[in-house]
Structures are given as C-alpha cells and as structure tokens.
Write a structure and sequence with these properties.
Blueprint: E1 16-18, H1 43-53, E2 57-62, H2 74-88, E3 96-100, H3 123-132, E4 140-143, H4 146-155, E5 158-162, H5 167-171, E6 183-185, H6 188-204
Parallel strand pairs: 1-2, 1-4, 2-3, 4-5, 5-6
Helix pairs in contact: 1-6
The chain binds magnesium ion and zinc ion.
Length: 205
C-alpha cells in the first residue's frame, strides 16, 4: 500500500484508476527481474498529462505471485519503486499504488484466501477512494482484462478496455470474457487523447 494523504475538507475528486501490467508496463507475466519492467510507449505521457490537470492517478493491481510463492510481498515495494522511477524519468507520478497479493488457491497460507481486494472485487478502489477522498462515480477505471472493467462497473466508474496486454485476446473472447466497457482503445495514451483529456477538461472548467 502507498502512504496516502487524507483530505476530508474538500469535495471528493474524480480520479483515474489504472491497472498495472499490460496497461502501464508491458505484460510479460510474473516479473521476478526489475529489468523486465518496461513502460508501454505513451503511458508515462498520459499519466504526466493527468498529473498536470490535477487528476489523481491510482494504480490498482492484482499480484497473486505473492500468494503463489513466486516472490515475497517485499518484492512489490521494489517493483513499484522501479515503476515510479521509470515514470519520474518522464515527469509522471502516481498518487497511489494498491496491490492485492492474495489468491484463494495460493501456495502461501498467509495470502491464500478469498479476499475483498482481488479484482473484480472492489476493495482496492474503495480503499483508495477513502484514503484519497475520491469520487468513484466521476472516475475512470482502465485496464486490459475483463476483471478490470468488471470492477470499474461495480463501483460506478466509467471504464476503458485497452487492446494492449491481454486486451486483444479479451476482445476476441479468448481470455476471461468480453466485458461491457464504455470504451475500447489501443493504448493508455490514445484513451487519454480521445476521452480523458476532453472529459476532465470539461469537468474542470
Ligand atoms: Mg493487466
Ligand atoms: Zn486481496
């Protein structure tokens, strides 16, 4: 979990929730090596533009590799440190990073249960909304899997399915199921240019 700052005096803000793998960084399976973490072209630019508009950007990511025993939970901090470094090099920053290390049928008992945070369960988005004073109904959830769209719909976000990562397979009906997303785009930067930029410009003016 990140170290969010609470702001309860002003009205809740709209935000952008982002999946991690296949959305911000290239989908390469379970990442055990920091060098395998590579940004998708344009992802940092999209986040930087949202930063400049004052829109909170929050990562919500399922990381069952912890429950599967592939790496310890402390690895998440290293990985997300690296992610933040790569983004910072392009002038972009994240307002929060939430991950779910759980899996019902995992290998590590401590992490192997039916949690409230593994997408499509809404725990991470609800926690972020509380921590950062966010208005889920005016926010977006963006990701490359059906479960990203399903969790967004569940909490009342607008949803964008990306063709990056698993998105193309999802749209062909070859992975998970075909979800009812509001929009489909090739990449995060395309979704920013086509939807987020006009939406938030309108909202903020
Ligand atoms: Mg993903
Ligand atoms: Zn969880």
């Amino acid at each position: 979990m990140s170290s969010p700052t609470s702001d309860t005096t002003s009205p809740p803000k709209p935000a952008v929730f982002l999946d991690r793998d296949g959305t911000i960084n290239q989908e390469v399976g379970y990442i055990r090596d920091l060098d395998k973490l590579a940004l998708i072209p344009g992802a940092a630019e999209a986040i930087r533009q949202l930063n400049q508009m004052g829109i909170p950007v929050v990562v919500v990511t399922n990381q069952s590799g912890v429950a599967r025993g592939y790496y310890p939970e402390s690895w998440m901090e290293q990985l997300h440190g690296r992610l933040k470094t790569l983004l910072a090099a392009e002038g972009a920053q994240l307002d929060g990073v939430y991950y779910c290390p759980h899996l019902p049928d995992g290998e590590v008992p401590e992490y192997s249960f039916d949690c409230d945070c593994r997408k499509p369960e809404p725990g991470m988005l609800e926690q972020a909304a509380k921590d950062l004073n966010l208005d889920l109904g005016r926010s977006f959830m963006i990701g490359d899997k059906a479960t990203d769209i399903d969790v967004g719909l569940r909490v009342g976000c607008k949803t964008i399915l990306l063709r990056s990562g698993y998105g193309e397979q999802v749209l062909k009906g070859e992975y998970q199921h075909i979800p009812q997303s509001d929009y489909v785009f090739d990449s995060l930067i395309e979704s920013y240019e086509q939807i987020l930029k006009p939406y938030f410009s309108h909202l903020l003016n």
